[in-house]
Specification:
With 430 residues, this protein is mainly alpha-helical. Helix content is 69%, strand content 0%. The protein is built from 18 helices and no strands. Helix 17 crosses helix 18.
Length: 430
């Protein structure tokens, strides 16, 4: 089984490297631009350059020092220091790093269900066209997906321990996995700050599903404490440079207003930020608070339009093909639709098959639903759905197995794992 996994990981890595080569060629020789998706990518690259040169972490004039989390720029800075100021080298590095999502999906499938499920989930992840294409893109989604999967992988053993009928699970083991879950969640937040809201939600589900509520409360406290402590250096740095403490950034207000304003369409259009020019007279903190208040005022004054925007964003999130105008070519739409729709149907079928295994469903379905809810408020696109597709591969693998057995006429009586870690080789490590 592990031999097959190495072949699958090798194939996935090769496909991602080919995607990096192909993307760089297209950008250089056909599109004549530096980035596939302009805007955020420019900012991340400039921050990475500044980190590589040992300069202050800031962008624009007047300087914005708490605009982005430092995780993704740090990876770019590492590439620049090792290989020079070359975007192609950074794309190759991302392709290699993001291929780690393949064995992580194997781990999730194996420990939550079976080794066969893990292998199929890894195979689906390795060949998923959109996940391959996005791996070398200089945006946060693919790197975040790997870190998010790592946090979910660390949380897997907690389900088995907390749903066990044993009265006294080993507290040192419980504590270790809880701390690892919190730390890996913090690393994910360093790349994508919106994940910080998912962690307390996860702890609530942990308390609701656990048979041993006292142990679950202990785990939740450790997870949240580890999360906060791991993010504390960044929060203290923000206090020092801005005079205000935050564990994330002061960009939530403008992002919220981007999705909730009189001209909002569900897509991102930050032209209002330059038009208003508030940074010329306000601090980052004040601008953040101003736009938060403006977004809430819009919701109060236009509840009908707000609900209409929720529907538009929901449709954009679940759209099987990209919403951006540069991806309207029929081949792109057909390819992405043929990749996503079967995955979604298989995942729904697999989820129904294991509907009694609540811990499995939490770890595989909750991420994509969490980002759906989040981006029904903020701006929405297929891009924001991609991290949630990785754990969904486990359910798709279960659905594929069930279909195969049904077709073969050998479907056994369903035996639900109920979240207990698999005894297959390879279990027990984050």
């Amino acid at each position: 089984m592990r031999r097959w996994l190495w072949w699958i990981v090798g194939l996935g890595l090769l496909l991602r490297v080919v995607a990096a080569v192909g993307l760089q060629y297209q950008l250089d020789h056909r599109w004549q631009r530096e980035f596939l998706i302009e805007g955020d990518a420019n900012g991340y690259w400039e921050l990475g350059q500044r980190l590589a040169r040992g300069e202050s972490f800031q962008l624009y004039e007047p300087p914005r020092r708490v605009l982005r989390m430092p995780g993704f720029p740090a990876v770019i800075a590492a590439s620049i220091r090792m290989f020079g100021d070359h975007k192609f080298a950074a794309r190759l590095l991302l392709a290699v790093v993001c291929s780690a999502g393949i064995p992580l999906c194997y781990w999730l499938g194996t420990t939550l269900h079976s080794a066969e499920t893990g292998l199929i989930a890894a195979g689906l992840t390795a060949i998923a066209p959109v996940l391959i294409a996005f791996s070398p893109v200089l945006l946060t989604e693919s790197l975040f997906a790997v870190l998010m999967l790592s946090s979910l992988a660390c949380a897997v053993p907690l389900g088995g321990l907390l749903q066990s009928r044993e009265k006294s699970p080993q507290m040192t083991v419980v504590a270790l996995w809880s701390v690892l879950t919190g730390v890996m969640s913090a690393l994910a937040v360093y790349v994508k700050p919106s994940w910080i809201l998912a962690v307390p939600g996860f702890c609530v589900l942990l308390l609701l599903l656990a048979r041993q509520r006292g142990t679950a409360l202990f785990c939740s406290v450790l997870i949240m404490t580890s999360l906060v402590l791991a993010l504390l250096p960044w929060g203290l740095r923000n206090q020092r440079v801005s005079g205000h403490f935050t564990l994330t950034t002061f960009w939530m207000g403008p992002s919220l207003y981007d999705g909730l304003n009189p001209d909002a369409t569900g897509d991102s259009d930050m032209t209002f930020f330059d038009r208003d020019g508030l940074m010329n007279s306000m601090s980052e903190y004040e601008v953040d608070r101003h736009y938060r208040k403006a977004a809430l005022e819009f919701v109060k004054q236009h509840p009908g339009r707000t609900l209409e925007l929720v529907g538009i964003k929901f449709a954009r999130y679940w759209n099987p093909w990209p919403n951006a105008p540069q991806f309207t070519h029929p081949t792109v739409r057909i390819a992405t639709s043929l990749a996503f729709l079967p995955l979604l149907l298989l995942a729904i079928y697999g989820g129904w098959e294991v509907r009694q295994d609540r811990w499995l469903l939490v770890l595989t379905v909750a991420p994509i639903l969490y980002f759906c809810a989040l981006h029904c408020v903020f701006v929405s696109s297929l891009r924001y759905r991609l991290p949630g597709e990785y754990p969904l591969m486990v359910l798709a693998a279960i659905g594929l197995q069930t279909l195969w057995r049904t077709w073969r006429g050998t479907l056994p009586t369903t035996g639900i794992n109920m979240g207990q870690p698999s005894a297959s080789p390879g279990g027990g490590a984050c």
